[in-house]
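Hey, quick one: can you model this chain's 3D structure?
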Amino acid sequence: MKKSKRLAPVRQIKQQEEKEAAQRLGEAQQGLNAAIKQLQELQQYRQDYYASLTEGREGSSSVPATSLEKYQLFLAKLNGVVERQQETVEQYKQHVDSHRKKWAEANARLKSIDELIDRAKLEETLFMDKQEQKSIDEQSQYRKRQW
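Sure thing. Here's the predicted structure for all 147 residues.
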């Protein structure tokens, strides 16, 4: 059996590994996108809430202390949620980077196998060409002797 044919199952395995790595990378990227979207929504909500708080205070010079305290407490909690979501986004970014590296490695292995198969096919072709040339030479020698 030719070397290029023997390497075909190895190529299939490496191709499957590369495909799975690409799929995991895509899933990680989707998770990152969702986390970023959630972070943006939280930041927008915080900004809208703060704007509504400051707009409500512009019309009057006094705000009951309990209301102000509740606003501040809620904003503190909201800021904490935003910070945690920022940390989650950073974790997802690291996760995506890790999967990107794994995919790149799997892709490089697949390309290496493809190059090895191409070299094997070239060697096989060269060998077949030499065999064919040898056969032609032998036939021409045989014809010369018959003359």
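One thing worth noting: The chain has one domain: 7-122.
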